[in-house]
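Narrative of activities, Objective 1.

The group set out to show that a structural description can be obtained from nothing but a protein's sequence at a throughput compatible with the screening campaign. Below is one input-output pair from the validation batch, recorded exactly as produced.
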Amino acid sequence: MQEQLAPVEFLALLLDDELERRSQQRLAYRLAQSGCDAQKTLSQFDFSALPGLNRTMINDLASGAFITRHENILFCGPTGVGKSHLANAIGIEALKRDLRVFVRPVHRLLNDLNGSRASGGFPRLMARILNSDLLILDDFGLQTLLPGAIQDLYEIISERYERGSIIVTSNRAFEEWHDVFGNDLLASAALDRLTHHAHLLVITGESYRQRSRRKEALEQAKSKTRTP
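Output recorded for this entry:
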């Protein structure tokens, strides 16, 4: 191969390989820093299990255009229907476009913020949260939030309003989100900002885990039937 290429062409090929290698290294670093799960990609998502899900819309959101417009995505639905997987997959697509992504479960993020106050790391952690191009808040409303955590969550939503995109996943009905804050004033202000420029996707269906358990049980039953 090398003998068939002119020197300039061979150097160009080496340069392309080096650029690709560095690009993959940057992606791997950003992926590790973001908190995204490398296994939960769009290609690994079983769209056939959710025939009511608008796949075209998901692919459009995965293009990252909503991030440029500083819009939000709100995923609602029961446990196990793939909300976190979709949010993570969109995050990975953003990383591929050299965008900064930060993903955490809501309760963990707020606990980390509270703990960072004692260690002096609060400004740095808050800066990462506020300055990321895409912030993914997973499992909103899954656990009760303390007053201090609620205030931090409000500050995050308020500071990112029309400046940075947020994806929120929750197994609570959207009408119940107001109750999570436990503070009517903060809830109204935060949700008004969160939903102003937002794509709301309500996902319905059966839990992936329940389907997987049934499939495993069926395969075990068939195996026992075939055993002489």
